[in-house]
């Protein structure tokens, strides 16, 4: 759905994006992560033909961009760098204008398309209020409704939960997962690691313009080969395991052990009380920290 090769962007002497090879596959919920200034927004704008690359190539829906923009962009819903709308008009009127400007569907069904998009994002109640009175979260919902008007094959979203309260974030997550289950591929940039971890099937991490991680989330969170043990007899366990304990934090031990069941049997036979035991898995935060700083931080609880 999205593929780039050696995608590079320079602004004078500043190298903003450095030979990025993105691989977003059909059916993905792809989380694109990066700190402010990492080149994330510039990359997204190049994908959509809003910024021209210095070198490298971009394909979206199997077509070269920006050359094929006229045929590709009508199949792509976008919410990038915040939603834009006419403040003196209602949410419904704004969507009707956008639908008319798109020119891809008949006028006869416009009211239905607009109503369905508003209902999808939970904005049907506020649809007839002027946008100037909307909160940031309401504007964000309206922007997503605009992206969904034409039921796109691909959604490209920049911080889609910006301004939403916890309930709104959960509703947004459920909506995106439902759209994905119905066949929409989703590419979203976000700084909310916990949200990406719950939502995405694949992730890419950009650091100072370079793509430093790109893989399935399940692969990144696979067991590390170590086991996390929580025991009130931590000192005795350290002595018993004779160098196999790689980290201790109070009652919590990280043990070099491929077979948790065998480790548990060893501890129990020695009279050591085990309150919790399971394979160690890295969280997305640790993956990102390891890729961008070389320091993964604390090991996570067993999952």
Structure explained in plain terms:
The chain is an alpha/beta fold. The chain folds into 2 domains: about 1-215, P-loop containing nucleotide triphosphate hydrolases (Rossmann fold); about 220-280, 2-Layer Sandwich (Alpha-Beta Plaits). It has helices at about 40-45, 70, 90-100, 110-120, 135-150, 165-180, 195-200, 215-220, 235-240, 260-270, 285-295; strands at about 1-10, 15-20, 25, 30-35, 55-60, 65, 75-80, 155-160, 185-190, 200-205, 210-215, 225-230, 245-250, 250-255, 275-280. The strands form 3 sheets. A 6-stranded mixed beta sheet has the order 7-8-9-4-10-11, with helices on both faces. The protein starts with a strand and ends in a 10-residue tail after the last helix.
Q: Give the ordered list of helices and strands.
A: EEEEHEEHEHHHEHEHEEHEHEEHEH
Helix content: 25-40%
Beta strand %: 25-35%
Structural class: alpha/beta
Helices and strands in order, then pairings?
Blueprint: E1 2-11, E2 14-20, E3 23-24, E4 29-34, H1 40-47, E5 55-60, E6 63-64, H2 69-72, E7 76-79, H3 91-102, H4 110-120, H5 136-148, E8 154-158, H6 166-181, E9 185-189, H7 193-199, E10 202-207, E11 210-216, H8 217-220, E12 223-230, H9 234-241, E13 245-249, E14 252-256, H10 260-269, E15 276-281, H11 284-293
Parallel strand pairs: 4-9, 4-10, 7-8, 8-9
Antiparallel strand pairs: 1-2, 1-3, 1-5, 5-6, 10-11, 12-14, 12-15, 13-14
Helix pairs in contact: 3-4, 4-5
């Amino acid at each position: 759905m999205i593929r780039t090769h050696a995608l590079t962007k320079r602004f004078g002497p500043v190298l903003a994006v450095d030979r990025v090879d993105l691989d977003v596959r059909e059916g993905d919920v792809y989380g694109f992560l990066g700190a402010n200034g990492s080149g994330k927004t510039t990359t997204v704008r190049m994908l959509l033909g809003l910024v021209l690359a210095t070198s490298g190539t971009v394909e979206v829906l199997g077509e070269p961009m920006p050359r094929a923009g006229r045929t590709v962009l009508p199949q792509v819903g976008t919410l990038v760098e915040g939603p834009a709308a006419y403040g003196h008009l209602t949410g419904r009127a704004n969507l009707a204008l956008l639908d008319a400007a798109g020119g891809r569907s008949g006028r006869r069904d416009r009211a239905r398309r607009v109503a369905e998009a508003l209902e999808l994002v939970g904005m049907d109640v506020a649809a007839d209020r002027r946008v100037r009175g909307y909160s940031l979260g309401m504007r964000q919902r309206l922007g997503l409704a605009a992206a969904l008007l034409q039921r796109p094959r691909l959604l490209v979203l920049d911080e889609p939960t910006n301004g939403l309260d916890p309930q709104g974030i959960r509703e947004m997550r459920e909506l995106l997962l439902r759209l994905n289950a119905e066949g929409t591929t989703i590419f979203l940039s976000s700084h909310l690691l916990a949200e990406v971890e719950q939502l995405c099937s694949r992730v890419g991490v950009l650091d100072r313009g370079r793509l430093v991680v790109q893989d399935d989330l399940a692969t990144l969170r696979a067991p590390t080969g170590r086991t996390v043990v929580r025991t009130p007899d931590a000192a005795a366990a350290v002595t018993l395991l004779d160098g196999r304990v790689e980290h201790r934090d109070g009652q919590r031990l990280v043990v070099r052990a491929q077979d948790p069941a065998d480790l548990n049997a060893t501890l129990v036979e020695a009279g050591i009380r085990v309150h919790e035991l399971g394979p160690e898995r890295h969280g997305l935060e640790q993956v990102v920290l390891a890729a961008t700083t070389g320091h993964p931080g604390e090991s996570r609880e067993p999952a």
